[in-house]
Amino acid sequence: VRIAVMISGGGSNLQALMDAIDSGQIPAEIALVISSDKKAYGLDRAKKRGIPVDCLPEKEMSEDLLSEEILRRLHAFSIDLVLLAGYLKKIPEKVVKVYEEGIINVHPSLIPAFSGKGFYGEKVHRAVHERGVKITGATVHFVNEGMDEGPIILQESVSLTGLETPEEIGKKVLEVEHRILPKAVELFVKNKLKNQQGRILVKGDEV
Ligand code: GRF
């Protein structure tokens, strides 16, 4: 399975994926990394590991041009699975249509809480902090036309005392992301995910 990872920032999720591939947990390869920001440190992580990188600064492009640019690269690299790992932009609908059920996103909350338009990256942790919830977590899901609305693959919770700062919340949630995104990719690559009317079932008891 050939994977493309889309990033926007530090790329710690990308790093977790590369480590899971190196450890043999995920029998697949990352063939391409695309960043929406040319300064993303995740690009350095990919380069260090000899993975081809590209940058698509979507703010300078129309949605149609961005779709074409993304699809051209995904086809050129024969990509089977697209991972949004800390990618802070919306994937164009045309790309979702071509890769439906082949795009997986990690979101730093227990969807549907703190998800959808406006809830991404640090904004999520600030909203969680403001609301004072006692349980938050992370979600890995298939991407559909909506924002954070595709079928959920895995979720894991994080308990909060209420004393944590948004940064500390983010750190706790990131540790969960680094576990469940590689796990979801492993299950996908090993064909253990089954879509039952919009609910994702995991074959066997791997979870
Ligand atoms: C973090 O806010 C994470 O919760 C979200 O994207 C941001 C950065 O992730 N998924 P990464 O370190 O770039 O993978």
From TrEMBL:
<dbReference type="InterPro" id="IPR036477">
    <property type="entry name" value="Formyl_transf_N_sf"/>
</dbReference>
<feature type="site" description="Raises pKa of active site His">
    <location>
        <position position="148"/>
    </location>
</feature>
<protein>
    <recommendedName>
        <fullName>Phosphoribosylglycinamide formyltransferase</fullName>
        <ecNumber>2.1.2.2</ecNumber>
    </recommendedName>
</protein>
<comment type="pathway">
    <text>Purine metabolism; IMP biosynthesis via de novo pathway; N(2)-formyl-N(1)-(5-phospho-D-ribosyl)glycinamide from N(1)-(5-phospho-D-ribosyl)glycinamide (10-formyl THF route): step 1/1.</text>
</comment>
<keyword id="KW-0658">Purine biosynthesis</keyword>
<dbReference type="GO" id="GO:0004644">
    <property type="term" value="F:phosphoribosylglycinamide formyltransferase activity"/>
</dbReference>
<feature type="active site" description="Proton donor">
    <location>
        <position position="107"/>
    </location>
</feature>
<dbReference type="InterPro" id="IPR004607">
    <property type="entry name" value="GART"/>
</dbReference>
<feature type="binding site">
    <location>
        <position position="105"/>
    </location>
    <ligand>
        <name>(6R)-10-formyltetrahydrofolate</name>
    </ligand>
</feature>
<comment type="function">
    <text>Catalyzes the transfer of a formyl group from 10-formyltetrahydrofolate to 5-phospho-ribosyl-glycinamide (GAR), producing 5-phospho-ribosyl-N-formylglycinamide (FGAR) and tetrahydrofolate.</text>
</comment>
<dbReference type="GO" id="GO:0006189">
    <property type="term" value="P:'de novo' IMP biosynthetic process"/>
</dbReference>
<feature type="binding site">
    <location>
        <begin position="11"/>
        <end position="13"/>
    </location>
    <ligand>
        <name>N(1)-(5-phospho-beta-D-ribosyl)glycinamide</name>
    </ligand>
</feature>
<dbReference type="Pfam" id="PF00551">
    <property type="entry name" value="Formyl_trans_N"/>
</dbReference>
<dbReference type="InterPro" id="IPR001555">
    <property type="entry name" value="GART_AS"/>
</dbReference>
<keyword id="KW-0808">Transferase</keyword>
<dbReference type="GO" id="GO:0005737">
    <property type="term" value="C:cytoplasm"/>
</dbReference>
<comment type="similarity">
    <text>Belongs to the GART family.</text>
</comment>
<feature type="domain" description="Formyl transferase N-terminal">
    <location>
        <begin position="2"/>
        <end position="185"/>
    </location>
</feature>
<dbReference type="InterPro" id="IPR002376">
    <property type="entry name" value="Formyl_transf_N"/>
</dbReference>
